[in-house]
């Protein structure tokens, strides 16, 4: 995971890292599953091309791996930085309209942000909201969305039959509640058509609802805790109900 190369020995985060004496911006170095698969695909194509030219196997392996790595580093990552910046500008546009659309925007598309490794713009969005409103309005939305994703997995858990599969889903859901949704997204939700649609709907609704609740956060300190708990409870209900509804309608052939 090359993003970890940006951490110095004393724990500080570096803005640039050096690879082969080349200064590379750390922002955007998030090797998501989609990027990793693309890197392997590029390396495999290079390897097959080397085979067609009768190049020795050992050299072909090193060459294809190097080309796959460098293509991601100097082509794909800059493209992802551009996409990440565009997503940030969309958020700022929605946020400036003082509506719930920015919360729904983050919630509905968060699985895709994580899948393509462009969720890093959310940290910059946190800085924007703190500068404009004096508080972090992104983190509560993300927390509620993670809860909704975990509850979507629980909905899949209720419909699954295999004992081993139930254990896998339950652990993935629990990890999502703790702030690590990768297992739930990649291993559970994206493998279920109803789960994908449910994640979009439940995440968008949970993000919008949390955006509505955010103004109450500034009234009293104790409301911060109650706001967080209420967001999780609402996301829990939304995630399970939406998945069960989508699954029922898909089974009936209505969606």
Helical coverage, percent range: over 70%
What is the succession of H and E elements? EEHHHHHHHHH
Q: What is the number of helices?
A: 9
Mean pLDDT: 77
Order of strands in the sheet with most strands: 1-2
Content of β-strand? under 5%
Estimated radius of gyration = 21 Å
The total of beta strands comes to 2
Give the N-terminus to C-terminus distance in angstroms.
Answer: 39 Å
What does this structure look like?
This protein has 255 residues and is mostly helical. 72% of the residues lie in helices and 3% in strands. The protein has nine helices and two strands, in the order ββααααααααα. Strands 1-2 form a two-stranded antiparallel sheet. Helix 2 (57-96) runs antiparallel to helix 3 (101-116). It is flat and about 65 Å long.
Observed structural traits:
255 residues, mainly alpha, two-stranded antiparallel ribbon, 2 strands
How would the blueprint of this fold be written?
Elements: E1 16-19, E2 22-25, H1 33-52, H2 57-96, H3 101-116, H4 121-133, H5 139-159, H6 163-177, H7 182-188, H8 193-213, H9 222-251
Antiparallel strand pairs: 1-2
Task: Give a concise summary.
By secondary structure, this protein is mainly alpha-helical. It has helices spanning 33-52, 57-96, 101-116, 121-133, 139-159, 163-177, 182-188, 193-213, 222-251; strands at 16-19, 22-25.
